[in-house]
Amino acid sequence: MKKHIIHLIICAALIPLAAARAAETVLLTQLDLSHLHFEGWAKPKTDQSFNGKPLSIGGQKFEHGIGTRALSTLWLEMDGRSERFQASVGVDDAAGYAAAAVVFSIFGDGKKLWESGVMTNGQPARTVDVRLKGVRSLLLMVDHAGENNKFNHADWAEPRFVVSGAKPRTVNAPREEAVILTPKPPREPRLNGPKVYGCRPGNPFLYRIPATGERPMQFAAEALPASLHLDPTNGIITGTAPGRGTHTVTLRVKNQYGIATRTLKIISGDTLALTPPMGWNHWYAHYNRVTDAMMRDAADVMVKTGMADVGYAYVNIDDCWMNAPEDAKRSPDPLRVGPFRDAAGNILPNKHFPDMRAMTDYIHAQGLKAGIYTSPGPLTCGGFCGAYQHEEQDARLFAEWGFDFLKYDWCSYGHIAQGGDPKAKVIPLWNKAGPNLEAYKYPYRLMGGILEKLPRDMVFNLCQYGLGDVWKWGAEVGGHCWRTAGDLGAELNRIFAVALKNAEYREWSKPGSWNDPDYIQIGYIGDARNNGEPKPCPLTPTEQYSFMSLWCLSAAPLFFSGDLSRLDEFTLNVLCNPEVIEVDQDSLGECARVVPLTPETFLMVKKLEDGSQAVGLCNRGEVAASVVAKWSDVGVAGKQIVRDLWRQKDLGKYDGQFKATVPRHGVVLLRLRSAISTK
Ligand code: GLA
């Protein structure tokens, strides 16, 4: 027995020694660096500077390391038995810009462990030696410091861990549980959707009343114009748009558990999209794989899952429904290759779309609307037939086919506008004086004018990535919404930056005229860099809520672009919270104003039609932050009833301010109503 005890004591005494002896050095460059996030397209390099030169900081050369650029983050998971992280850091000498300035920071389990302070070009490397014992989640970050955020090339030179347990593992982001916040819709009826709806007098009319509650439900509409008819079983209103003016209709829906009433103003006039259009677009899920069947299925899913009951209405086909030329470089499947047009010049859908009219009939029968896509240039972005020199003929055909929405994508038009077609009567993009704004407007004005005269309401979506400050003139050329930047798909980690940029154009956001920061890409989406097959999106659950919150605060068009055939409960909960969507669909049409608080945190404040305020407490930083919404910043006074919109729960009455801890990349979305107002 005694012998055993002695043996145990000896063993116990040996363990730390053995552990210490077992400590090994793991080079960061030996780990999987595919999780390293950074700004821009070029890839960070291993053992080279960002622009491919030997690693060099303040004249000192290093053999190993990572050459990246701000803003760059790398998350690692550890077992708590990593001892130290060591490296030399600084701005790379090849950054080639005198004003380059960055800050390196290291966070362990949400707390800052080390910071370099501002490091500038030419400064000698700073040595890092951080104790990690017990740390399970590590973040290595390089941020911009100072005004310039273009050439901030930064090196983690000779970066290594001293570990006595398992090797650290790089990960996309700290793991988070996907918590469902949106309460299940109650069985009692609830009317959702916008309170105003625009149409053009005399055109075909279609509106599905969005309502949740246990079906069967019975719909009614008081004071519905005589030219319209409501199907009481499914809430679909059809007919001919009434004469010019505002027609105030009282909608009513009931089931065995209750009744709900709401006013809808049908405004018949010149303006469509009085609230941001909502729906689904195939692009980020199916790219050049889209088929007629997918579009029909999408309509079915939107109805079956309840998306249509909270306002999603458009089922929009994007690029690749037409033919590509035989000699297409990015040759698609043979069923998408063929003649562009028939003998009369009518554009031909490819073989995956045997009958466009039958497809839109199918979508319309569910009370939903259909959207289509083309380019003002000879080819679309995907290399398929565009509308160039057939603009009117194509638009008329789209209307005959029954489409209700047109996305018009600049793409190959750049070549024409540059003077690429000497026979064309277009305004050259450049003249001696420089870029010509009229040339940016020209193709959109042409199509806008055509659409306005069609005997069909077609929402006109300008897609030209913000060229010529499109937000300033999109409405003038007949557009209802316009992309404010390039494709978001490839840079999903930039949702905060994109929302903030988009908010700079808030002055142009109003009913019938919307800034569009691109589609909601959550659930299963395909990698935009290679038209990939749908996979779970890389965003954390918190980031997905933030995406939706930021878009709603921005009054952005809400188009989900993930795979509808793989919708899960969590994704649906992010997409389908009627109180969150109400912020987006508010009749005032304001885009929230931004109140900056710290470099990482800000408020977004959106005035709503009933006098209340939607407020986003936003944290774009890498760790949780405390954010205070002061009444003076929100623009309210006195006691406010604060409601958490995601949880659909009043949090109480507050005076002066409201404070919350906002998670990494999170938005706490609130609605503030004056406690004394009767509204
Ligand atoms: C561009 C647009 C995308 C999509 C593709 C289709 O990249 O910005 O939204 O329409 O073209 O090719």
Characterise this structure:
The chain is of the alpha+beta class and 679 residues long. The protein has four domains: 23-171, Sandwich (Jelly Rolls), CATH 2.60.120; 190-268, Sandwich (Immunoglobulin-like); 286-584, TIM Barrel (Alpha-Beta Barrel); 593-674, Golgi alpha-mannosidase II (Immunoglobulin-like), CATH 2.60.40. The protein has twelve helices and 43 strands. Mean pLDDT is 94; it is low at 8-20. The structure holds alpha-D-galactopyranose. The site of alpha-D-galactopyranose (GLA) has 9 residues, from loops. Residues 283, 318-319, 380-382, 409, 463, 487 line the site of alpha-D-galactopyranose.
What attributes characterize this protein structure?
six-stranded antiparallel β-sheet, Jelly Rolls, binds alpha-D-galactopyranose, TIM Barrel, globular, 12 helices, 679 residues, 4 domains, alpha+beta
CATH superfamily of the largest domain: Aldolase class I
Q: How many alpha or pi helices?
A: 12
Shape: globular
**N-to-C CA distance:** 82 Å
